[in-house]
Fold these 4 entries.
Entry 1:
Amino acid sequence: MFLNRIVPEKGAHYLIEAYNRIGRDDVKQVIGGNVDPRDRYLDSLGTLAGNNENTVFTGYLTDEEVREMYSNAYLFVLPSDLEGMPAVVLEAMSHRCPVLVSDIQECTDIIRTADHEYGYVHKASDVDDLAAGGTRPLLLRAHGHAKKTLFKPTFRFRRIRRCLAARAVRELPL
């Protein structure tokens, strides 16, 4: 599942390509989010998806629909090339949804701590690695396991605020 703005830098095209390579018909691929109607990117995603009935474009989703999507998702994927602080990853994790993110620092800073990883990582812009990430045996079992162990309520506001403050200090120009 991909829920975000439908723009090229978020990488939905990588996800569709990876899904097509995996060739599974027992798992639907859901692409949801806002799109600028003047933008042709959504058209290119539709072309890339082809006639695959298992790829579903939802468009805008209400908060209730988003919660429902997370609760039923097998895996949340954010294959971004460029991010600021991707709150959507925190949102997925808060719903105890397993996450697979690109290896850009903005994503890995969220899912990795000194002693644990709270999600899975693929090489940014690498469709083969993204496809492999979606087929790892651990990931195939991740949803049930994650609800019990991986996504304990570790992401408290104070902790997130401290992490963001530490990151901001690291990035200050000298």
Entry 2:
Amino acid sequence: MFCGNCGNQIPDGSAQCPICGAPQQAAPVQQPAYQQPSYQQPAANVGTIAIVGLVCGSVSIPFSILGGILYGVPGAAFGLILGAVGLVLGIMTQKATNKTKGMGAFVCGLIGLIFGVLFMIGCSICGCSEKQTTGTCYTALGTCGGGCQMANDTKNAVGKLNDLNSLLNDYNW
């Protein structure tokens, strides 16, 4: 128990305070319980996270489509990664703002993710079927990548034919 006059701790049931001598009432005065101040971690800048998520989600859509068409699996994979980042940041923003912000990042990220998966699967299937039928795998590289690879293979084949032609000319064939 505590003294009602000076606040010092005294033995329970004391009639007077041994320190200040003040008489004590029948109901002891309780010292208020100590409450530790709560520390709240500062919230991240939700606006910045929402904007970065929206940019990643928005950019993932054309990267997934054009990357898949022009560069095949690697291009679509890059769009897929951007879509996943946009999706995650959209979810984080929605949780932090009680679903008042972040829907754009969520939707764009989801669309980019879906297109990235579709183009990766499509390029992989085309590349595998082409490998089985022609022995080459240009389609999985995409239109641009496949064209560059095909041009390189054609140049090598022409070079080998020229070597063979000069060899045959040396033997008068």
Entry 3:
Amino acid sequence: MGSHESKSSGGGRSDPDVTVTLNAIRRIFRLLRLSSSATEKAYGVSLAQLFVLHELASGGPFSLAMLAARTATDPSSVSVVVARLVERGFAERGVAADDARRAEVEITPSGRELLKKTPVPAQQRLIAAIALQPRAERQALAASLTAIVTAMGEGESEAPMFFEEEHARGRRKKKVVDR
């Protein structure tokens, strides 16, 4: 057995349910990957940034916690994306009108102009498709995927926004190389 194989690597190969499940995951991943690449190439922003901009445009201003809830992620992940949007002038940070201790984020006119040119982010389509499922099916899907991730040894790892971790790593590497 090669070093990259595990004892259970052959299990499930003849199980049609495993094949159907993997094909569905592959299709979702492909859609997100292609959407991410096309978004970055055409508009110069990551798919995660576009997703956050869409959420900011739908209401706001939002606290980071509210924005994290709206994007189904955690505040630290959304904070990284917001920082990039602020840096590019597509969003701005401010202080909440009702509580000077709370920071808020809102979309800028430049961010709204960008959104006029862009398609609906793939994440929003994925969230909408999941939300259409009956509650019992959503709960079963969440439990199954969580069990799979845990069985793969990733149950406690951070879950950044789609492709944002790789995007951030690529930027950091370039900065280090350029020095």
Entry 4:
Amino acid sequence: MKIILKISFSFCIVFSFLSCRKSHLEVDDIYYYNIIPDTTITSVSSYYPFSGIPNPNDSTASIQIDLDNDGINDITLSVSHYYQWQSASNPLSNYFYQSGLNMINSIDSIATLNYYDTQFGVNLTVLNFLHINDAINSNLRYHTSATIKSIVFWGPSYNGPYGDSYVGFKIKRNGNYHYGWILISRSGSNLTIKEFALNRTPNRKILAGQTQ
């Protein structure tokens, strides 16, 4: 009987110690949303045969997303093009194309890179196109807006990669940062939004593509 009591008592101490340690460990609390079906925005309905001129001449399409499920939209993704005469001999150069992301609240931000246009000597704040399992944390550079595409006839231009990429972001709530990602895909003038996630545990990183 004494031996049994001793073993039982030792087990309780160990179990209590492990429970205490576990309660102090931070765990990821991931809010994940899969957009079904994928949502695609585009400013171009069609291109005229042979000339490649977009129809309509001027157009903008955008979508807003509530990243933390609080009923308030947090980010705007947009694509646009517009006509501005530049050349009679090259009609396509008269069309300017732009796409990008903007945080609605100035305390929130998007993971970005600095792109230097050597021809015009201008710095552009462009999207940091992330890959699966890239860490999204305080080590990245952030800005309230980011350029995905900016094509102009005579001026600084940028065109990011096509296909699937992850957008890293952070939002500030109650004095703490929450990190997250959005999966987007680019094809021609189309921008598709597929899914997104947010780590609801304050100040804790998230990996691109992490859902739990």
